[in-house]
Write a structure and sequence with these properties.
Elements: H1 7-32, H2 42-54, H3 58-84, H4 87-100, H5 106-118, H6 122-126, H7 140-166, H8 168-183, H9 189-210, H10 213-221, H11 231-242, H12 253-283
Helix pairs in contact: 1-4, 1-12, 3-4, 3-8, 4-8, 5-12, 7-8, 7-9, 7-11, 7-12, 8-9, 9-10, 9-11, 9-12, 10-11
Length: about 280
């Protein structure tokens, strides 16, 4: 460090670098979506099979699945630093944050659901929802809102929050936990639920601030702290309250279309808010 350089200057440089990493990764994800070499998880599936073969206890098993790739990224950062200097931090940061974005073509699935629901193809629309979120007794609008809101949340918002709190390694750790849980058929649900808690509540607050705060306030003060309420249910109720939707009294594809379109708008506004907040933080 240059003599006389203040801690504030160091922090400011770190924030500017983090913001550059954030903007480049967000832009790349917006343009390219979930795909490319960084989202081909065959290497991670191989790692999972090898960890399963060791037959470790639950938490050591999860730690190995998450920490081993991060150690590899740290070694790569160290090697690149000797070749390209400070640029290595930006390159590895962008790669890790891009790795942390969610998998699957969510926008296409969302568009297909709306297209099928608009023509009354209920069965076709239901096929695009995750089985784990399906409840036969719930209206289609409720099921769609729960499933699609959580998928939209998990692919973007937790990595963003953990990136700003813990850096690109923190964002990647979230996605590696989610991938570990998916590969093990829900074995690490407790860990993922724990990591989802804070970002889901901040997103819920975003919905309330940008929508009908009076109606959403009750969820913020009660359901947000109820351990029995799942994250997908919480987000769906937050969107419904903030958007003044009445999901229980209406059923059928028309109600589902209205609910999902309201969700799209809420997610878009919340995304813009989070980017704006990150920009303000970087400029301070």
């Amino acid at each position: 460090m240059v003599q006389g350089e203040t801690c504030g200057a160091v922090a400011g440089r770190f924030t500017r670098l983090s913001y550059l990493v954030f903007i480049v990764a967000v832009g790349a994800f917006a343009l390219l979506g979930a795909g490319g070499p960084l989202h081909r998880d065959t290497w991670f599936e191989l790692l999972n099979r090898r960890v399963d073969a060791i037959e470790l206890d639950l938490w050591p098993s999860l730690a190995l699945r998450v920490v081993a790739p991060l150690i590899g990224a740290g070694l790569l950062l160290w090697l690149l630093s000797g070749l390209v200097g400070g640029l290595a931090e930006a390159l590895i940061g962008i790669a890790l944050l891009y790795l942390a974005w969610g998998r699957g073509d969510y926008p296409t699935d969302l568009g297909k659901f709306l297209a099928r629901a608009k023509v009354g193809d209920v069965e076709g629309a239901q096929m695009l929802l995750s089985d784990s979120k399906m409840g036969a007794s719930e209206p289609l609008a409720v099921r769609a809102l729960r499933d699609l809101s959580y998928r939209g949340f998990a692919r973007w918002f937790p990595p963003v929050l953990y990136f700003w709190l813990l850096g690109p390694f923190g964002a990647a750790a979230y996605r590696l936990t989610e991938l570990s849980n998916a590969c093990s058929e829900g074995q690490f649900d407790a860990a993922l639920k724990f990591l989802d808690w804070l970002p889901s509540r901040l997103l819920l607050l975003s919905f309330a601030v940008l929508g009908d705060f009076k109606r959403a306030r009750g969820i913020l003060t009660t359901a947000a702290f109820d351990q029995e309420v799942s994250h997908d249910e919480l987000l769906a109720n937050g969107i419904a309250r903030a958007g003044s939707l009445d999901l229980e009294s209406e059923d059928g594809p028309e109600a589902a279309v209205s609910a999902v379109e309201a969700m799209q708008k809420a997610m878009g506004r919340a995304t813009a808010l989070w980017i704006a907040v990150a920009s303000v933080i970087a400029l301070l």
